Amino acid sequence: MSTFKPAVWPRKLRSTEWFGGNSRDHIYHRSWMKNQGLPADLFDGRPVIGICNTWSQLTPCNAHLRDLAERVKHGIYEAGGLPLEFPVFSPGESSLRPTAMMYRNMAAMDVEEALRANPLDGVVLLAGCDKTTPALLMGAASVDIPAIVVSGGPMLNGWFRGERVGSGTALWQMSEDIKAGKMSREDFLEAEQSMSRSPGSCNTMGTASTMASMAEALGMALSGNAAIPAVDSRRRVMAHLTGRRIVQMVKDDLKPSDIMTRQAFENAIRVNGAIGGSTNAVIHLLAIAGRVGVDLTLDDWDRLGQDISTIVNLMPSGKYLMEEFFYAGGLPVVIRMLGEGGKLHKSALTASGQTIWEEVKDVRNWNEDVIRPVDKALTAKGGIAVLRGNLAPRGAVLKPSAASKQLMQHRGRAVVFEDIDDYKAKINDESLDIDENCVMVLKNCGPRGYPGMAEVGNMGLPPKVLRKGITDMVRISDARMSGTAYGTVVLHTTPEAAAGGPLAVVRNGDMIELDVEARRIHLDIPDEELRQRLAEWKPTVEAPTSGYIKLFHDHVQGADSGADFDFLKGCRGAGIPKDSH
Ligand code: FES
């Protein structure tokens, strides 16, 4: 049972400040709206629902969201609300440079300001591609009006010569195969045609699918939302039902702060472990929690995820893709299994008005190879390992389910790349002094360094190592990695190199020790020498002097704070700004 008490209905809504009267200003606001052909009775005090749309042809994963918005509108009208669709900045992962992550906070600001400044009582958040889901949740959390997510849904499975082609995962694999001489360029180009067969987001358990799962696990979407393929008719049904539901959420005054409680975040962290979710979820959930006032930390990730088995057999950790996850029953099955194992706060409230347990308790698993029983888990200890040590005083992360067992405890000689250009210039050089036992170190790819914290942490291996049949090496950086990627990769090292973190002073030939079980990452030089090197360190990344990039550089926080802007933390509420007329 949840303790939430619905508000009394009918009551005066915030939209009536714009539409609910006969003053000059009320007439002004209504009259201009009516140029869209809206009948007068739609302004009778009924809930006005925004449909916040990240549709964009420049964000191909979200290019079908206009259609879903229409389905949401059907539901809103049916339930007695007035839907008004509006666009927000859409950070698309596949094309934006230097990285879509540099624009997540900008999109979140856009959402927050649009929600507060407009005559809206509630909002449906239409998202899909990696950064769009967290950006919308961050913005909505900072305003705290009733909000619910509809995801665009994943693409259909890719197939190439009888094999599944997972978005991203296959691309990384094939490009390594080319370097190793195992695949021709012609075959690679042919495979390109089979990777993206339909509208939708990446079909692996990459960041987009992970964040859709996080939205559902947090309770911010209707149960089952995460996995329905973009082109399945049930995706449209989900949009329609969500449109109906948001109207009741406004009547009940069921807000993000009622749903996204500490219990909800703890559920989401455990779900991330069970699905083998992206390391990017760590950053995004920390940022969302910061907006809604939940004091989530990196240590929560380690503590709560440690004993969670990865049971979802999807790439990049496993074999299948999101289509099969949906056919097996999708995320509700995973949540039910966590609940049965005592790893779920069952009373956490969801957007449906039901508890999370009420939503999932009766669902069935239709394919036990896709969603494995715990005793046949992919990785007994999934979750996210949070590493600390003199190389990462404020933490670094590693995804055990995507790493190689034999490298989880490793000591190796550092081969240092000062930045991504240095890496690109050297990695294919046959004279590079490197072998499979070395530790690849990449600097200046954190939030300030890149800027934006690019997904380059899973650096490709040198060709001469790949030709030996080696597919993994220990890699360390302050970057992120794509949720579709894999390997024994230490990410998000904080403080980052560009902020003078210890990563900045690692030198070629230093010895580095990784011990995932002990949660340790260590630069094996005397303390005094480390102090000396840090004292002598000088910034190598030039600070930008104008534009959004300056705002970003000056205000972005470390990965351990979700890389949000310092001035955006917290909920600023839905107070109605002054009118200008
Ligand atoms: Fe958009 Fe993967 S690139 S979801």
Automatic annotation (TrEMBL):
Keyword Iron-sulfur attached? yes
Note the Gene3D superfamilies from the entry: IlvD/EDD C-terminal domain-like (3.50.30.80)
Q: Which InterPro entries match?
A: Dihydro-acid_dehy_C, DiOHA_6PGluconate_deHydtase_CS, ILV_EDD_C, ILV_EDD_N, IlvD/EDD_N, Sugar_Degrad_Dehydratases
Q: Does the keyword Transmembrane helix apply?
A: no
Its name, as the record gives it, is Dihydroxy-acid dehydratase
Domain (Dihydroxy-acid/6-phosphogluconate dehydratase N-terminal): give its ranges. 46-358
- Report the EC number(s), separated by commas if there are several: 4.2.1.9
Q: Which GO terms describe its molecular function?
A: dihydroxy-acid dehydratase activity; iron-sulfur cluster binding; metal ion binding
Q: Which UniProt keywords apply?
A: Iron, Iron-sulfur, Lyase, Metal-binding
Domain Dihydroxy-acid/6-phosphogluconate dehydratase C-terminal: from-to ranges: 369-563
What family does this chain come from, according to its entry?
Belongs to the IlvD/Edd family.
Top enzyme class of this protein? lyase
SUPFAM superfamilies per the UniProt record, alphabetical = IlvD/EDD N-terminal domain-like (SSF143975), LeuD/IlvD-like (SSF52016)
Q: Which Pfam families match?
A: ILV_EDD_C, ILVD_EDD_N
Query: What residue ranges are annotated as transmembrane?
Result: none
